[in-house]
Amino acid sequence: MGIRKLGYVGLNVTDVDAWTDLLSRTLGVGVTTAKSGTDEIVLAEMDEFKYRVALYPSTVDSPREIGWIVDTPAELDRLTAKLTDAGHAVADGTEEERDLRGATHLRWFTDPAGFRVELAIGETKVRVGADRPTGGPGITGLGHLVLASPALAGLRELYESVLEFKLTDYRSPGLFFLRCNATHHSIALGTAETASIHHLEFEHASIDDVGRAHDRAQANDVPISISLGRHMNDKALSFYVKNPSGFHLEIGCGGIEVGDDWVPHDFGRASVWGHRHADANPFAVANP
């Protein structure tokens, strides 16, 4: 009960056209448009629901909102009370915001890193399956996100104690993987001097889909920021591209699920193999 999964992410972006090209031509994500006030925004379709990523035209590149799906109105009220008791001011979303997200209920607050976090009930199914510009099953949904912030302690307190995420595992000196369902993690929290999204993960149906996306990235001269590899902790196979806003998109498949008997632990090295960084890794530790 409570939060069931990561629902959507909204981004302020300075180059909507470059994002749209990356999503459709390289990653095989169908895109549509919608109105938000006077702005036309781009919605990235990954499954049968309305959207998973929304791109808002802006003069800056920054996270706009992180949306979590909640089970029931009673659970939304319970979590709202916990947030209020913990000192977070919770507000209702507007009717326009609810309509855009396909939600029946929407509340939001600001987390310790300064990000807008939304709790939504309801997802609108608008298709049998998402349109695939490049063919094949491709992307199956939005997997997880990784936040980096100087407010790591406050974020851990929020997600673990208030929002009731469970710690799956961690890597010293300060990277924590948390889950809200059986998936290994829906969010990871790290430390950084400036609050930002380190990456979003787009979940794929198979390694062949990941491989085809890798081929398209190379053919389209999309910067591969972290090479193909397998993670040590969730066993996912993936590679990363640098998106037009400057952070990473992870293209992956095959992450494990865990049960209630799972014991959190330090998993040591980041990857079984691969995952070589083109630039400095902010979470780097010595890897044998």
UniProtKB/TrEMBL annotation:
Residues 5-122, 141-254 form the VOC domain. Gene3D superfamilies: 2,3-Dihydroxybiphenyl 1,2-Dioxygenase, domain 1 (3.10.180.10). InterPro entries: Glyas_Bleomycin-R_OHBP_Dase, Glyas_Fos-R_dOase_dom, VOC_core, Xdiol_ring_cleave_dOase_1/2. The keyword Metal-binding applies. Keywords: Aromatic hydrocarbons catabolism, Dioxygenase, Iron, Metal-binding, Oxidoreductase. PROSITE patterns: EXTRADIOL_DIOXYGENAS (PS00082), VOC (PS51819). Coiled coil: none annotated. Its cofactor is Fe(2+). It comes from the Bacteria. The keyword Metal-binding applies. Belongs to the extradiol ring-cleavage dioxygenase family. This is 2,3-dihydroxybiphenyl 1,2-dioxygenase. It comes from Lentzea cavernae.
